[in-house]
Design a protein that fits this description.
The protein contains six helices and 15 strands. The chain has about 325 residues and is of the alpha+beta class. It is globular, with a radius of gyration of 19 Å. It comes from Cyprinus carpio carpio.
Length: about 325
């Protein structure tokens, strides 16, 4: 499903799906517009309290020696990496430019990544760092960035290597494009869930990401996708929520990991297997969200996808 140019991993994926299906629970969380009625909000809060013990199921033991390597490596096949995103709005300008932190959702709450929107940028530009206290572009902890187009509807995720103009002729030290995110204009206007497409580099037969080092934007993930040049690329989409008549809202099954309704709640899947959740993201408190990701995503890709959902997209909502 994720391997480009071969189908060796299909059986593995099937085995993983069987395991996933066995562990499913009936807990649900709604994905709705943020302007829910007070009655609905109270019901949802009650749901959150009831399912809290089940919802905080810890991440499986995940250990690593090198943080930089870990956050760029695809998740181990068969393992769901359970994380938590917290948003810090404290301070002079953090209302406009909050800092976001990604931790493993386990007892130790191991720090993984931090991200913050850059000031004075013509388009939305988020720096991603492996040090929560160093969010500078020139710092040695800079690991990647998320950049949007002028409309705020398309995003590209880069690693920390050099711009193609400054790279060697063979492009060996040029930056890689790790993902692209497209928010489709909502034909229903202000109503209904958002639709998103995620394009990531494909995987080789060893389960490693195929490097994508475009020489220019005309050869990047967004243009390749636009031209339907999908060689060595994987297209993922958010799972379409089901309309629930009882709650008058759109519903996704987050298996207890999400407890509050929000337009930001989403699950990412591959068209070939809607039951294999590649990533899910959703609200558990005002400034706290769970983020779970699986192969073929890495932590930087998943965190950047989540950051894109925080950005204001007037054309999409």
């Amino acid at each position: 499903m994720f391997q480009t140019g071969g189908g060796k991993d299909k059986d593995k994926d099937k085995d993983k799906d069987k395991k996933t299906k066995k562990t499913k629970s009936p807990a649900k969380a709604e994905e709705t517009e943020d302007s829910d009625s007070e009655v609905t909000k109270k019901k949802k809060k009650g749901k959150g309290k009831k399912g809290k013990k089940e919802e905080r199921a810890p991440s499986p033991p995940i250990e690593f020696d090198n943080l930089e390597e870990f956050v760029l490596q695809p998740a181990q096949q068969g393992v769901t990496v359970k994380c938590k995103v917290t948003r810090d709005k404290r301070g002079m300008d953090r209302g406009l430019y909050p800092t976001y932190y990604l931790h493993l959702d386990n007892e130790k709450k191991v720090f993984l990544l931090a991200g913050r929107k850059r000031k004075k940028s013509t388009t939305s530009n988020y720096l991603i760092s492996i040090d929560p206290s160093d969010l500078s572009r020139g710092g040695e902890n800079f690991i990647g960035k998320l950049r949007s187009n002028l409309m705020g509807t398309k995003f590209t995720v880069f690693d920390n290597a050099l711009h193609p103009d400054r790279a060697l002729p063979d492009m060996s030290n040029a930056r890689q494009e790790l993902a692209a995110i497209i928010y489709e204009t909502n034909v229903l206007g202000m109503k209904g869930p958002r639709r998103m497409i995620v394009i990531i580099p494909g995987m080789n037969k060893d389960g490693e990401r195929v490097p994508m080092r475009p020489r220019s934007e005309n050869d990047g993930l967004l243009i390749r996708h636009q031209n339907r040049n999908m060689e060595n690329l994987i297209e993922l989409r958010n799972k379409t929520p089901v309309w629930n008549e009882e709650t008058a809202s759109h519903v996704l099954n987050f298996n207890g990991r999400v407890t509050q309704a929000s337009i930001k709640n989403f699950q990412i899947v591959h068209n070939k297997d809607q039951d294999y959740i590649v990533m899910q993201f959703g609200r558990v408190a005002d400034d706290a969200f769970t983020l779970d990701y699986r192969y073929p995503l890495c932590a930087v890709q998943a965190f950047a996808i989540a950051l894109s959902s925080f950005d204001g997209k007037i054309a999409c909502e």
